[in-house]
């Protein structure tokens, strides 16, 4: 290794660091008939083509998370939830707009943890009648309180143009470019924040 590589790192070291990143694609809805699994699978397919991180779809519905603080409830999934979130270096939140905000399930899942979220990066992919923009803005405030650095680029999917009959996900071609631009921001932020954890 030459002096230049010692001082500034080599391209190989940089690529190794990036492929060691774990980015969780979190499905923010748990209701029957949800479309978030379609959107999450699409984001993962695009992300995997990049080869810059290990991308994993994380479905809140797979974890038993009762309402936080609810007495006598089954919180048997809380430890697994803590473990999977703790392993991630960054996130892509798949966010649905319900009544101008995020789902109760996502808010509850966020509130269940604290340190596992801290000093990580996140991107947001939202959908709704106005692209889920209001839900995304609510989520940004919550992420800030959890010390998650959310990036600016925000793919916003319309129920009218990116879904057939509101249920079959068929995104406009431009949306793939938007997802990649978002990940172009998430990856360097996740890399940088990993150094302070």
How do the helices and strands line up, and which of them pair or pack?
Elements: H1 3-8, H2 11-19, E1 22-27, H3 36-48, E2 54-59, H4 78-86, E3 90-96, H5 104-111, E4 120-128, H6 133-145, E5 148-150, E6 156-158, E7 163-164, E8 168-169, H7 173-194
Parallel strand pairs: 1-2, 1-3, 3-4, 4-5, 4-6
Antiparallel strand pairs: 7-8
If you had to describe this structure to a student in words, what would you say it looks like?
- With 197 residues, this protein is α/β, with parallel strands linked by helices.
- It has helices at residues 3-8, 11-19, 36-48, 78-86, 104-111, 133-145, 173-194, and strands spanning 22-27, 54-59, 90-96, 120-128, 148-150, 156-158, 163-164, 168-169.
- The strands form two sheets. Strands 1, 2, 3, 4, 5 and 6 form a six-stranded parallel sheet that branches. The protein has a two-stranded antiparallel ribbon with strand order 7-8.
- The protein is globular.
- The two termini are 27 Å apart.
- The mean pLDDT is 92.
Query: What is the averaged pLDDT score?
Result: 92
Q: Work out the helicity level.
A: 40-55%
What characteristic shape results from the CA principal axes?
Answer: globular
How far the N terminus sits from the C terminus, by CA atoms, comes to 27 Å
* Count of DSSP-assigned helices: 7
Q: Would you report the number of β strands?
A: 8
Q: Please provide the ordered H/E string of secondary-structure elements.
A: HHEHEHEHEHEEEEH
Largest sheet: 6 strands, parallel
């Amino acid at each position: 290794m030459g002096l230049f590589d010692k001082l500034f790192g080599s391209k190989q070291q940089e690529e190794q660091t990036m492929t060691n990143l774990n980015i969780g694609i979190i499905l923010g809805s748990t209701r029957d008939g949800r479309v978030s699994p379609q959107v999450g699978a699409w984001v993962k397919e695009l992300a995997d083509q990049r080869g810059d991180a290990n991308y994993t779809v994380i479905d809140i519905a797979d974890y038993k998370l009762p309402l936080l603080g609810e007495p006598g409830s089954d919180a048997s999934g809380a430890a697994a939830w803590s473990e999977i979130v703790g392993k991630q270096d960054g996130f892509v939140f798949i966010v649905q707009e319900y009544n101008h905000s995020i789902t109760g399930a996502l808010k509850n899942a966020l509130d269940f943890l604290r340190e596992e979220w801290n000093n990580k990066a996140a991107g947001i992919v939202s959908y709704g009648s106005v692209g889920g923009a209001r839900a995304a803005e609510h989520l940004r405030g919550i992420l800030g309180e959890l010390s998650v650095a959310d990036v600016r680029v925000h793919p916003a999917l319309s129920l009218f143009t990116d879904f057939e009959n509101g249920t079959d996900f068929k995104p406009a071609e431009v949306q793939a470019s938007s997802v990649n631009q978002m990940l172009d921001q998430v990856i360097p932020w996740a890399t940088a924040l990993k150094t302070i954890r």
